[in-house]
Amino acid sequence: MKRILLIAGLTSLVFTGCSQMTVLRTQEMKAVGSEVEMRLDSVAAQLAQQNDSLRAELDSTKALLEASSLAQKRMQAEITMLSRRVSDESERNDSRQEEIIYRLDMLLGKSDKILAKKVVVSGAPAPVSMDSLEREAEKLVEAEAMFNTARSDYHRGEFKLAYSGFKQVYEQMKQGELAENSLYWMALCLIDVNQVDKAKKVFARMSEAFPDGAKTCPALFKLANLYGEDCDIDMQKQYLQKILSTKSCEKSAEFEQAAEMLQEILEKEDKKAAGEPVDACVPVVREAAPAPAPTPAPVSDAAAPAPQAPAAP
Q1: pTM
Q2: Residues contacting 168, CB < 8 A, separation 6+
């Protein structure tokens, strides 16, 4: 009986101790759980703060990238503009260099002619005075400057202004290479303002006044083309044959082109005569001219050509 009571007491004591230990373990686990939750909350708060910081950095980086992209686009636009300016300036410099070289060539050629002139006094030749040489040189330089300005106006599309400049040069020089070139460019201006009939007359008179000039062959070839555009085949052949019969044109580019063009016309005429089908010529339709312009007067002296220049278109 005592053993039973002892066992019962021990059992009760064991159960009581286990119960107390369970309570302690439960409290410990709750404390640990609370501590874990606190740590998790702290970590979550830190992560949220880091996330906000990262988002702020990403937004800042995105803004920087956008600003950088915009700045890059602006730089590309500026580089493009600068490249165009450099290209334009290069073209201007090339044009200026060409004009300077042309002017120097003209001066060198004209200076030799001026220095070679003699004035006959009392039947004996005498050297030209320095004042006369200076005046001739000044006149030449002034005419060349006007010619270069007119040529620049022409390339800018200011055909009427260019025409007036070339006309002024021609009226000042009357003879020589500058006068011939001025008439040639005057005719080009007339073509560009659709006064083709006037241009034809200027080209024709120019080729008569300067038969051995540097612009004679190009002028004759342009005449052939203009008459061809009007389907005036007889006049076209006439000017093509004139190119082929002009000795100064034999080594020009216009000589070979004229030969080929004339051959094509003759072959077409042979086919037509044989009854073979050929393409009909269709005249070029041009717009009405803005204003009429008189043509140069006929050359009265072949030894000293001085055709009258047409009025400004």
Answers
A1: 0.54
A2: 146, 150
Within a domain: 85 = yes
Does residue 76 lie within any of the structural domains? yes
**Per the domain annotation, does 78 fall within a domain?**
yes
Using N-to-C axis directions, what is the helix angle for 2-116 and 130-155, rounded to 10°? 140
Q: Which residues pair with 118 in a beta bridge?
A: 127
Mean confidence (pLDDT) of the chain? 76
3-state secondary structure 66-94: HHHHHHHHHHHHHHHHHHHHHHHHHHHHH
Query: In 3-state terms, the chain is what percent helix, strand and coil (to 5)?
Result: 75, 5, 20
The tally of domains found in the chain comes to 1
Helix or strand run (H / E) with residue 127:
strand 124-127
Structural domain including 63 reads 49-91
Amino acid in position 17: G
Q: Is residue 190 part of a domain?
A: no
Q: Which residues of the chain have pLDDT under 50?
A: 114, 117-126, 291-293, 295-313
Helix H, strand E, coil C: the string for 225-280 is HHHHHCCCHHHHHHHHHHHHHCHHHCCCHHHHHHHHHHHHHHHHHHHHHCCCCCCC
Which residues, at least 6 apart from 148, have a Cβ–Cβ distance to it below 8 Å? 99, 102, 103
* Residue 63, pLDDT score: 76
Q: What is the DSSP letter of 231?
A: T
Q: Which residue has the tokens 């062959």?
A: 217
